[in-house]
């Protein structure tokens, strides 16, 4: 068994609780589905938001999905001038027998510009 990281990112249209929840939920569903994960496979998750997002914690989406035993952490991205705004990023740490190359990273909405080098899903 290995602990692997799975990255994901998405954007929201505006800084509201509903927009953050909707985009984060959509991204989490995609990350779980594409990587065939169960909540017990997830060791922990780190959520980051850009400085223009402060209406709610994106980790609440994971809690509402039933991730009650998964340690979750929210933090803020470094505000690099000119970087993508209104962005939620997720790093899942998962316990798996799969190789790192088998992990499917998910970039949605305007966040596809962050990693055009890896097959964006």
Structure description:
By secondary structure, this protein is α/β, with parallel strands linked by helices. It has a single domain (2-112), classed as 2-Layer Sandwich (60s Ribosomal Protein L30, Chain: A), CATH 3.30.1330. The chain has 2 helices and 5 strands; from the N terminus they run βαβαβββ. The chain has helices spanning 17-34, 59-64; strands at residues 2-11, 42-49, 72-76, 87-96, 106-107. A 5-stranded mixed sheet has the order 3-2-4-1-5, covered by helices on one side. Strand 2, helix 2 and strand 3 form a beta-alpha-beta unit. The chain is globular. It starts with a strand and ends in a 14-residue tail after the last strand. The mean pLDDT is 95.
Shape: globular
Total individual domains? 1
CATH class: Alpha Beta
Across the major sheet, the strand order is 3-2-4-1-5
Strand-and-helix sequence, N→C?
EHEHEEE
**Using DSSP, what is the number of strands?**
5
Mean pLDDT: 95
* Percentage of residues in DSSP E strands: 25-35%
Architecture in CATH?
A: 2-Layer Sandwich
| Helix-strand makeup class | alpha/beta
Largest sheet: 5 strands, mixed
């Amino acid at each position: 068994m290995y602990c692997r990281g799975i990255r994901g990112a998405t954007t929201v249209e505006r800084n509201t609780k509903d927009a953050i929840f909707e985009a984060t939920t959509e991204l989490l569903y995609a990350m779980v589905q594409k990587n065939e994960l169960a909540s017990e496979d997830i060791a922990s998750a780190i959520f980051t938001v850009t400085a223009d997002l402060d209406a709610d914690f994106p980790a609440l989406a994971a809690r509402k999905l039933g991730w009650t035993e998964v340690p979750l952490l929210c933090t803020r991205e470094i505000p690099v001038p000119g970087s993508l705004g209104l962005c939620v990023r997720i790093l899942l740490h998962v316990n798996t027998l799969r190789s790192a190359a088998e992990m499917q990273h998910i970039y949605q909405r305007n966040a596809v510009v962050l990693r055009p080098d890896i097959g964006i899903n």
